[in-house]
Design brief:
Layout lengths: L1 H32 L11 H7 L7 E5 L1 H6 L2 H8 L3 E5 L5 H12 L6 E5 L11 H9 L5 H10 L5 H6 L1 H4 L16 H4 L28 H17 L2 E6 L6 H15 L5 E3 L4 H4 L15 H18 L12 H21 L3 H6 L7 E7 L6 H4 L6 H6 L1 E6 L2 E6 L8 E4 L5 E4 L10 E3 L2 E2 L7 E7 L4 E7 L1
Parallel strand pairs: 1-2, 1-3, 3-4, 4-5
Antiparallel strand pairs: 6-7, 6-13, 7-8, 9-10, 10-11, 11-12, 13-14
């Protein structure tokens, strides 16, 4: 009997250990496969929200991709130290806006909430990816469960509650940021930075003044948000980010504006002041529905002035609790620099954009005779340096020679971050791997000079010049 009980105990322990290991494996698999974006790629406004210190957000902008493409909190921070946040998700519909707002109010007490009205103009997401972005990105809670119940058909709700039946299909698309944290999904403030320009023609209708009939669903949504504002004590504003609107859509926006005005609430339709904003339908937009960074600056600065006329805000710049807003602005500035490099006319102009910039690592390799010594002078290399050849690193305005062009020299290796490594060596003139970041080889046998610029903040190579 004792032997039987002992063996039974061992079997129970084995089962418990197996179940524990299975739970650990499934947990790790879930962490890899779980949904990590609300805008595309790995950028998640919800992840950013969950990393934000409590009660630091002054202004919340709610909405769809129109919002995160058209409103950049970085500009509000840059100019006035206002801590703004885009709680926006691609395809954010009425139900999602309401529950995303409740999720935000769990940890934040904003003075103002501005809701983009694109949610008035559609009932259901047409893109499956947008359904997932809205339904799977929130932490599991009563709020997330109620969102699923409100939006998803009953026969599909269990899959969204468990998440695993949906996310396990991501197995074939996992990438680097499924295993490590994508840092902008910590310090970003909800915006998506882009300088892509639209190639389409202007088709919007902006002179419709009459109002249509507000649908019952839209009236209920507006009332619902008004109720939340009264319960939590924040000022509620509605707005429309400029896009090429149709006549039918404008009628519905006008109906909502009239409905809200009767209740003493403003709806700021920026489509109606496009001329005042000096918006260019191509240069200021990435497509017919979304602003690019140029348009977003015009929109955001107008909203900033609008808010400052109505509310008082503290300038939080320099306060430790608001460090993520500093990082968000730096992210924007580095993305802007990368954009300027990409459209620069020739290597000289490209090089001018990286001089005297922080968080850049510039590698210069001179491997043969060249008449381009003057080109390298702004980097700190003299004619004698160029004639002798070698490898240099320029970092924080300090130029350091790493090695001569001598075979057998010990390679220089530096971990740039957790995933990227720099290797500088000399294996012979023109060998591609003489300058290498991860598996990317930069030196070309056709050119004696190679300049590679790695952005340590963006964690990517932003420039490679051959001369």
């Amino acid at each position: 009997m004792k032997s039987f009980r002992k063996e039974h105990l061992k079997n129970c322990i084995r089962i418990l250990v197996f179940l524990l290991l299975l739970m650990l494996v499934l947990h790790r698999a879930y962490m890899v496969l779980n949904w990590k974006d609300t805008t595309g790629d790995y950028l998640s406004s919800l992840s950013q929200l969950y990393h934000t210190p409590e009660d630091t957000i002054d202004v919340v902008f709610m909405g769809s991709s129109h919002c995160y493409c058209g409103v950049y909190p970085a500009f509000l921070w840059r100019d006035n130290g206002i801590a703004a946040f885009d709680m926006s998700v691609s395809g954010q519909d009425r139900a999602s806006t309401y529950h995303m707002l409740l999720e935000t109010l769990k940890t934040q007490s904003p003075k103002v909430v501005m809701v983009d009205c694109y949610g008035l103009l559609f009932d259901r997401n047409l893109l499956e990816g947008n359904v997932y972005r809205n339904m799977l990105s929130m932490k599991t809670s009563k709020n997330s469960i109620e969102l699923v119940k409100e939006y998803v058909e009953p026969e599909e709700q269990l899959d969204f509650f468990l998440k695993w039946p949906i996310i396990h299909t991501r197995f074939w698309e996992v990438g680097k940021y499924d295993f490590i944290q994508y840092e902008p999904s910590i310090y970003g403030r909800g915006a998506l930075f882009s300088w892509h320009e639209s190639e389409g023609e202007e088709k919007g209708v902006y002179d419709v003044q009459e109002a249509g009939t507000l649908t019952d669903e839209n009236a209920a949504w507006l009332d619902r948000l008004i109720g939340v504002s009264k319960e939590y004590g924040f000022a509620l504003e509605f707005f429309v980010v400029p896009f090429q609107i149709t006549e039918e859509e404008q009628l519905q926006v006008n109906a909502a504006k009239a409905y809200l005005e009767e209740r003493g609430i403003a709806l700021l339709d920026l489509n109606q002041i496009r001329d005042e904003l000096k918006l260019d339908s191509q240069k200021d937009f990435m497509d017919d529905k979304h602003c690019n960074a140029i348009g977003a600056e015009k929109v955001t600065c107008y909203l900033r002035d609008y808010l400052l006329e109505r509310y008082e805000f503290s300038d939080h710049r320099g306060e430790e609790a608001y460090a993520y807003w500093d990082q968000d602005l730096e992210w924007y500035l580095h993305c802007e620099m990368k954009q300027k490099i990409s459209v620069a006319e020739g290597p000289k102009e490209q090089l001018e954009n990286i001089l005297n910039q922080k968080n850049l690592i510039t590698i210069i390799s001179v491997e043969g005779t060249t008449d381009q010594a003057d080109f390298l002078a702004p980097l700190g290399l003299s004619n004698e340096d160029v004639s002798a050849g070698g490898k240099w690193i320029l970092r924080d305005d300090k130029l350091v020679k790493i090695m001569e062009n001598e075979e057998g020299t010990v390679p220089y290796i530096e971990d740039l971050n957790a995933t990227d490594a720099l290797r500088i060596q000399y294996l012979g003139e023109g060998e591609g791997s003489n300058v290498q970041i991860n598996y990317m080889k930069f030196v070309s046998p056709s050119y004696p000079i190679t300049i590679v610029c790695y952005d340590a903040f963006l964690k990517e190579t932003i420039l490679a010049i051959h001369l």
